[in-house]
Amino acid sequence: MEGDTGTIGITDHAQQSLGDIVYVTCQVGVRVELGKSLGSVESVKAVSDIYAPLSGEVTEINQSLADAPERLNQDPHGAAWLVKIHVSAPAEIQDLMSAAIIKLT
Predict the structure, then answer these.
(1) For residue 64, which of 78, 85, 54 has the smallest C-alpha distance?
(2) What's the pLDDT band for 99 if we cut at 50, 70, 90?
(3) 48 has which bridge partners?
(4) Which residues contact 10 (CB under 8 A, 6 or more apart)?
(5) Contact in structure between 93 and 1 (CB atoms under 8 Å)
């Protein structure tokens, strides 16, 4: 989070489960709801929805993934973020898990 803007991506575990990622689809201007699809990721195995961890509006997409979606496999927690959203329900942030908690489960 930076102010009221959240940067959204997928976890390292998700990219490992998906395998080689070949296509990503997300759109600017789309209003998203917590738990609902905000786009999709296609791998050599399957097409999977990307579920919004927060409600808001997509304000930016990572254009570098259009030409090189495989970056999601290389750096999912860094440069290969998917979208930025203007968060409309800041209280939802309290329910997010940290990477440390995810590794424990």
Answers:
(1) 78
(2) low
(3) 41
(4) 18, 41, 50, 72, 76, 82
(5) yes
DSSP tag of 88: S
Instruction: Express as a percent the part of the chain with pLDDT over 70.
Output: 92
Picking from 67, 6, 17, 87, the residue whose alpha carbon sits closest to that of residue 45 is: 17
**Distance of alpha carbon 65 from the chain centroid:** 12
pLDDT at 105: 47
- For residue range 13-47, list pLDDT tens digits in order: 899 999 999 999 999 999 999 999 999 999 998 99
Residues 60 and 28: their CA atoms lie apart, in Å, by 6
